[in-house]
Task: inverse folding
């Protein structure tokens, strides 16, 4: 439905969506957020992690009933962003690196490096509350079908 989270999308499919969106909206540059941007948005410029009680802010294993839920039913963060934790894990632009040694210091995506995998952030409906923290990340290849949200820059 119209309020459902984007899910079951591979990284290449997310990239194709971004390309089409950029063709339709010439005044904006759309892209997947970098890991650093995603984490900053998740924490809403604070160091409070998580930003509320797990079941109030996220669809997780303990309250999801084993499925995703419409976006916007849980408490948003201080930036007004919903479902940064839980519900559906989200692709970032970054290639997978096991640590941040050599990562860009300006918050841009860290691409390349030989890994065919890309980084997911945010957890999901199937993870327990224990995993509810902004630094949760993992490597996934194209075979994995997850969700995404889009970042935008004015051209």
Result:
């Amino acid at each position: 439905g119209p309020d459902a989270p984007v899910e079951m999308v591979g990284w290449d499919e997310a990239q194709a969506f971004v390309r089409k969106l950029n063709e339709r909206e010439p005044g904006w540059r759309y892209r997947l957020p970098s890991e650093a941007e995603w984490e900053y948005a998740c924490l809403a410029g604070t160091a409070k992690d998580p930003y509320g009680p797990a079941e109030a802010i996220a669809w997780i294993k303990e309250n999801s009933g084993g499925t995703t839920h419409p976006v916007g039913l849980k408490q948003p963060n201080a930036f007004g962003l919903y479902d940064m934790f839980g519900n559906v894990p989200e692709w970032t632009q970054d290639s997978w690196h096991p640590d941040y040694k050599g990562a860009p210091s300006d918050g841009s995506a860290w691409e390349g490096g030989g890994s065919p995998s890309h980084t997911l952030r945010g957890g999901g409906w199937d993870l327990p509350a224990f995993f509810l923290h902004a630094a949760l990340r993992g490597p996934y290849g194209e075979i994995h079908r997850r969700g995404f949200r889009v970042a935008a820059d004015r051209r």
